[in-house]
UniProtKB/TrEMBL annotation:
PANTHER family registered for this protein in UniProt: GALACTOLIPID GALACTOSYLTRANSFERASE SFR2, CHLOROPLASTIC (PTHR10353:SF209), GLYCOSYL HYDROLASE (PTHR10353)
Lineage start: Bacteria, Katanobacteria
Name recorded for this polypeptide: Glycoside hydrolase family 1 protein
GO biological process, one term: carbohydrate metabolic process
Single Gene Ontology MF annotation: beta-glucosidase activity
PROSITE patterns: GLYCOSYL_HYDROL_F1_1 (PS00572)
Active site: 215 (nucleophile)
Keywords: Glycosidase, Hydrolase
Family of this protein: Belongs to the glycosyl hydrolase 1 family.
InterPro entries in alphabetical order: GH, Glyco_hydro_1, Glyco_hydro_1_AS
Length: 301
């Protein structure tokens, strides 16, 4: 099935970015092992090797793991996502296993063909101090950013050909508390701060890797903010490129309304509305706006 999908995409001139793990795991793996198990990384590397053998150059970029720290936080710290285990110590082990899994998967895919491109997808928020000159606000902001970005990425620097970035919002820190202005927010209450995307991109410049924005989107059922959101985010991308960031691509999240693990179907991220009962697909106005940007490869600033 997947091979047919990839062949179809290639026949239409599309480049394919394939994620090997996006939150869900096989039932047999979850029951017998799970991501806290010592064998998790070796099993994942075998899976990555098999995928590279089967799909080969039908895949332009292999992305090993999507948002590893989001998964471990929601599953092992908050206990909301499966396997719903509130265990910070286990969360640390899972974090380590994700790092090892990526490294081993990277090596496995390169064994199949050293020219295959391999990366990882990291969800990164920007953190800014609420009080510009307050030492605590600045220290907490720096620490939080380090934890969600460099803490995970630095050990992987030698084992990734590119960085996939998922950016959604920024947190403004007053001490240890986020006090976001929330002047403009998504339906999920996420503060829309396009400047944060530019800040994150500039911070990733030090890795000297190509960067792809693999997710950037807005829950906006009425489609009132999405056009302006896309314009502002792409403007931030343009500004980062002008400052030397090697940004190679941008993926809006998402084409269709999707299922959010905790919230379900109600947050509407799609450029295309998906009617749950009939499965009818109805393009929103923002779809045509974004299609024009893609066709012209430009945005009016």
């Amino acid at each position: 099935h997947y091979k047919k999908v990839l062949q179809s995409a290639k026949s239409k001139g599309l480049k394919t970015f394939v994620t090997l793990h996006h939150f869900t795991s096989p039932l047999w793996f979850s029951k017998k092992y799970g991501w806290g198990h010592p064998k998790a990384s070796s099993l994942f590397s075998k899976y990555a090797y098999k995928c590279a053998q089967e799909f080969g150059d039908l895949v332009d970029v292999y992305l090993t793991i999507n948002e590893p720290q989001v998964y471990l936080y929601m599953s092992y710290v908050k206990g909301i996502w499966p396997p719903s285990k509130k265990n910070p110590f286990l969360a640390f082990i899972v974090n380590t296993n994700f790092m090892l899994s990526h490294i081993r998967a990277y090596k496995s895919i390169k064994k199949v063909n050293k020219n295959y491109k391999v990366g990882i997808v990291k969800n990164i928020m920007w953190y800014k101090p609420h009080r510009k000159n307050n030492l605590l606000d600045k220290a907490v902001s720096k620490f939080m950013y380090f934890f969600v970005a460099d803490f995970f990425l630095l050990p992987l620097k030698r084992y990734t050909d590119l960085i996939g970035l998922n950016y959604y919002f920024t947190n403004e820190m007053k001490g240890f508390k986020a006090v976001n202005p929330n002047d403009v927010v998504s339906d999920l209450g996420w503060w829309i701060y396009p400047k944060g995307l530019e800040k994150v991109l500039l911070s990733l410049k030090k890795y000297n890797k190509p960067i792809y924005i693999t997710e950037n989107g807005l829950a906006d059922e009425q489609d009132k903010l999405r056009k302006d959101f896309i314009k502002q985010m792409l403007t931030s991308c343009y500004q980062a490129i002008n400052k030397g960031v090697n940004l190679k691509g941008y993926f809006y999240w998402s084409l269709l309304d999707n299922y959010e693990w905790h919230e379900g179907f109600w947050p509407k991220f799609g450029l295309i509305s998906l009617e749950k009962d009939t499965l009818n697909r109805i393009p929103r106005k923002s779809f045509f706006y974004y299609a024009k940007i893609c066709k012209n490869n430009s945005v009016d600033l």
